Amino acid sequence: MTRLSLTLTPVIIIGVAIILAILNLATPATSALHVSDFVVGLAGKYLCYALLALAVDLVWGFAGILTLGHAAFFALGGYCMGMYLTREIGARGVYANANLPDFMIFIGWKQLPWYWHGFAWFPFAMVMVLVVPAILAAVFGFLAFRSRVSGVYLSIITQALTYALLLAFFRNDMGFGGNNGMTDFKDIIGFPLNRSSTTTALMVISAIFTAAAFLFARWLVGSRYGQVLVAVRDAESRTRFLGYRPEYYKLVIWVVSAVIAGIGGALYVPQVGIINPGEFAPANSIEAVIWVAVGGRGTLSGAILGAVLVNFGKTVLTGALPGAWLYALGGLFILVTLFMPRGIMGTFGRRAGAETSLPTAHEKQGLAAIDGKAADLAEAGADIGDGEKTA
């Protein structure tokens, strides 16, 4: 990746967000330049999807783990935020009960479950946004990678994970609102969610987190750790032979990506105004994989581009032909697979001299060092073998 593209991607994200904010807040509604709250909200939602796409690209593009369950971490982050926003409603609910959410009163609950305590405090909720997806990812990843589950089998169990959570959160006795989920949010840390200024602020915050996540991911995959991770992706057995523990490298990137997805979900909920078990749907995880494939696997900026473009197309097409979206999505994936297997950034970015998934000069040096180490070990093995034959 070039230094220019490293700087350009976050600059574009922040720049577009600032322009939208100015056109929304500083221009009259009658002006041709005015951007409506609806458009600002869509932009914020696309940025949250971009965070999920970044998370998927980290594990699929750089670790070779095709995940079909990352929507689970996105949804868990969203539920943590939803629990805070629900507690923030207080006595303004239908039943005017400051201690229990409306859905708990409706099903006859008399007291708040223990796992809801603390969510009335914003800092606690934000910590849970990070911790809950991380814990689930750590437990799942440790068991899966330690057992050396890989390939299509790992993809299947990631999808089974998110489907199991979907079924669990549908149950009323789980205490998360059942199939209706949580909605009717009023404000966030005192700012009414129905104000233009709050909508715009959430969109800008989403842009900042997306840019920061991109820079962090770029630093991570460009580090020594990232070089070994790519080696694990391309030749896991060989990397293990060199003395590395691939399962731990996979586990770290798996947990990091889960946290990024959880942050995306937490930012998503106050902007759409609802969280329900539908966010766990396996189809959502599959869509995220398609975003990355369209934008360019292993490019990071391509993941962001793919998430924005595909979801913009979804917004346009579902408004005109709601039933045609799934067919269009499937057709798009087939076309990309056949004619642009590297995605948009991997295909056109290379021609323009921009970011691609190919190793940089620094990465090539690291790979060369790994090759050198392998050659030394192979030569030592040959010497030992010759000595045994001589004896």
What does the model show?
The protein is mainly α and 391 residues long. It has one domain. The chain has 15 helices and four strands. The strands form two sheets. The chain has a two-stranded antiparallel ribbon with strand order 1-4. A hairpin with a 2-residue loop joins strand 2 and strand 3. Helix 2 crosses helix 12. The longest helix is centred in the last third of the chain and has 30 residues. The chain starts with a helix and ends with a helix. The C terminus is likely disordered. It is found in: Cell membrane. Keywords: Cell membrane, Membrane, Transmembrane, Transmembrane helix. One of its GO terms (molecular function) is branched-chain amino acid transmembrane transporter activity. Its main location: membrane. It comes from Acidisoma cellulosilyticum.
